[in-house]
Design a protein that fits this description.
Nonspecific Lipid-transfer Protein, Chain A, five-stranded mixed sheet, 7 helices, SCP2 domain-containing protein
Length: 159
Amino acid sequence: MRGIKALLIRILLWFLGRGICACARLDSRVAAEVATWAEGASFCLAIAPAGPAMSLQLRAGRVRFLGLRPVADATLLITFKHLEGALPVFLGMKSIARAYAERRMTLRGDLTFAMSVVRVLHIAEAYLFPTLITRRIMQRVPRREVSMARVYLATLFAA
């Protein structure tokens, strides 16, 4: 069962990572947020102790998906303490803010950068999750500037 959960989170991390990259190109708020990041800044979202991970980095002014592996010297590292603590967040049953409040994860890095990343995650989740889920996990659902279909297509097919 643990293997199935890890595979599911791996798939969801792939969509989330590529979805953030798509949102950075298509949504002006995400683009503005990313513009404040330092060149070379990297972000890693991982599951402890040796679970799946996803990494992003700002290179040449664009957010790049580095794949489903942790980056050793990430500027920001968000680590869920265990697979069972991460699953409700990735399935849209809990918000990332609630998971942090429940101490399901740890954060290592610059807090200002972390807040910016959480704002980007918040907007990306509004595109990637159906409206029914976003209303349940977000206090204020961000308005979509482009269609969900366009973001999904960019997530699936854009490099």
